[in-house]
Amino acid sequence: MHNNPKFIISGGGTGGHIFPAIAIADALKRKLPQAEILFVGAKGRMEMEKVPSAGYQIIGLWISGLQRRITTQNILFPIKIVASLLKARSIIRSFKPDAVIGVGGYASGPTLRAAVAMGIPTIIQEQNSYPGITNKILASKVNKICVAYDGMDKYFPKSGIVITGNPVRRDIAMFSDKREEALSYFGLRKDSPVVLVIGGSLGARTINESILNSLNLFAGNGLQLIWQTGNSFAQKAEEAIRTYEVKGLRTHSFITRMDMAYAAADIIVSRAGAIAISELCLIGKPSILVPSPNVAEDHQTKNAMALVANNAAILIKDSDALNTLGATIISLVKNNAQKEQLSTNIRQLAYPDAADHIADEIIGCLKTKIKKIVK
Predict the structure, then answer these.
(1) CA distances in angstroms from 190 to 92, 207, 261, listed in the order given
(2) Do 181 and 329 have their domain in common?
(3) Whether residue 52 has pLDDT greater than 70
(4) What is the tens place of the pLDDT at every residue in 180-228?
(5) Rounded CA separation 125/259 (Å)
(6) SS3 for 72?
(7) Are residues 181 and 39 in the same domain?
(8) What is the pLDDT of residue 44?
(9) Within-domain flag for 329
(10) How wide is the angle at C-alpha 344 spanned by C-alphas 358 and 176, nearest 5°?
(11) What is the C-alpha to C-alpha distance for residues 286 and 332, in angstroms, rounded to an integer?
């Protein structure tokens, strides 16, 4: 056991995996300032940029997912798996972590598999209401499985499950006193409602097309807009709103200051990824969810239904969004009672201390020496 405890956090691919991983790392550093933390991600993926900018070292594995059609990438997939397992074992031997945490994403599987085989304490942080196949396979071999939803014993051994909620970025948790600053940051007025549209860190085509078709409706009703499009839709969106820019319609390929975006918003339109849901619960603002249909076992709809069942959000099917999203936004903006009800109910589903809870579970998997350091 090290005097300075060492942790590997592995996973990534999208902001929904990366930002919780960083939140866990930050929580570990707050509790164990002397800790050393190394990230293991997938080469060429978003984490290779975002993790270093958060102040942590990262090593990339040559790994990717299977495509739905026959491609060169699929032919290479078995080779990548073997290469990634070997590289993960090499990283673990060199770094000598006291624990390894998997947060989902391509790199998480090989790294956790290697850690389990080498007898290193391992923790899964499962964000969704429906887990991926790798986590299902590894769940019986890891020390703890930190989850955000009830009923996960359908997929995991009940003895290893801890309900912690999903961690969110610390800056987002501190959004509440920033509204005036946020409106200024985005160049928006105080006297008109602000709609925040976030389709995920990579954008969402159906949401983007629905918002594009609704710009006249928004402008005609005096709405202001903060619209995160993703890179692929950015140019089309910028061209479309140029006519309306003086009326408070703003587009961004990626919003780096999500704390500001949440602070400025009166209503939020979002996909229903697990981390998006967790952030929305913490923010506590009226939300319209458009679950992505392109995910395993339709888990975004399951995520969204956990809120809808508590009258904590509005659900619009992806297939209905083009025809109904714009009108639903306008209707919600004008219905103060509904906004207040949704806001009250969604706040009750928040886990504000999830990152700290997960960090405590990680530390609890280690030997007594680490626990003494914490004290």
Answers:
(1) 52, 26, 14
(2) yes
(3) yes
(4) 999 999 999 999 999 999 986 556 899 999 999 999 999 999 999 999 9
(5) 23
(6) helix
(7) no
(8) 84
(9) yes
(10) 65
(11) 8
Spell out where the chain has E strands: 6-10, 36-42, 57-61, 99-102, 122-125, 144-147, 161-163, 194-198, 224-228, 249-252, 267-270, 287-289, 314-315
Domain count, the chain: 2
Q: Is residue 174 helix, strand or coil?
A: coil
Task: Compute the radius of gyration of the chain from its Cα atoms.
Answer: 21
Give the domain range for residue 85: 6-166+352-374
CATH of the domain at 270: 3.40.50.2000
Q: Can you say whether residue 58 is alpha, beta or left, with left for phi > 0 and alpha for psi between -120 and 50 degrees?
A: beta
The residues near 165 (Cβ < 8 Å, ≥ 6 apart) are 148, 278, 350, 351, 353, 354, 357
Percent of the chain having pLDDT more than 90? 66
pTM of the model: 0.81
One domain, residues 272 and 148: no
Q: How far apart are alpha carbons 164 and 147 in whole angstroms?
A: 6
Q: Are residues 223 and 329 in the same domain?
A: yes
pLDDT for residue 93 is more than 60: yes
CB-CB neighbours of 14 under 10 Å = 18
Identify whether residues 176 and 66 lie together within a single domain: no
The DSSP H or E segment spanning 106 is none
Cα 111 from chain centroid? 20
| pLDDT for residue 375 is more than 80 | no
Give, in degrees to the nearest 5, the angle at Cα 214 between 209 and 216. 135
Residue 1 lies in a domain: no
